[in-house]
Amino acid sequence: MASFSVVTNIASANAQANLHTTQVGLQKALTRLSSGFRINASGDDAAGLVTANQYRQDLAVLTQGVRNANDGVSDLQIKDGALANVATLLDRLSTLATQAASGTTTNRTHLQNEFTDVLSEINRESTVAGLNTAAAFSVFISNDNAGSATDGKIAGTIAAVTTTSLGLASLSVASQSGAEAAVEAIATAVGTLGTSQAKIGTLQNQLQFAVSLAQSQVVNTRAAESRIRDANVAEESANMTRYNILTQSGIASLAQANNSTSSVLSLLR
């Protein structure tokens, strides 16, 4: 049996509750569409937010790691260019020493002067390029899966390239015997220089491979974060349309529920 009450309007209360729920859903859909994010507050997806934030932190590390690697490549290119110049200077030393080693050469003073100048230039270029002392080379790119930096770092030691480290400092072509010894010492120095060039080349290749991997990880990590954090525009557009319709029907229902109590007055006439 139906009952009528002017004190408590159950239909109106139900309509208001449903309208409130609809308004919450509409607000959420509008927020997601306007921001582009599915997660705009911790309550939207607490567990998903933790994972998305971890991906975002990984992206920050990888992005900076790529910059670090590119800076490392630039530094190695500077050193490699200096070593190429040193190799050319060694060729000149070989030419001077060979000329001075010939018995037909009578005036070795000018040869010795140029020989000394070339040795000085080797030391100067070595200092400018930061090759005057042995130095540890290290570039941090990213953490490994275990959270350690061990596998995320490219490192090595670049040997000093000076006249002393190449065994050239005490050479002289002022005499034929000295020039003959210089030819042999310079040949050894060429091999020593080649070892340094090989080390720099190896580090360059490692960094380039590391950059390729890091860039691939950036793309995949960004996609993983997007799947969690970003809003699905098609889905949210459908939600907005649905909640708009429910809002209008809810308002109409609330108005009807509020007016339904007026029928009780007819019982008092």
Which range does the strand content fall in? under 5%
Percent range for helical residues?
Answer: 55-70%
Report the strand count: 2
State mean pLDDT (0 to 100 scale): 89
In the CATH classification, which architecture of the largest domain applies?
A: Up-down Bundle
CATH homologous superfamily label of the largest domain: f41 fragment of flagellin, N-terminal domain
Using the coordinates shown, work out and report the CATH topology of the largest domain: f41 fragment of flagellin, N-terminal domain
Shape: rod-shaped
Structural class: mainly alpha
Low-confidence parts lasting 5 or more residues at pLDDT below 50?
A: none
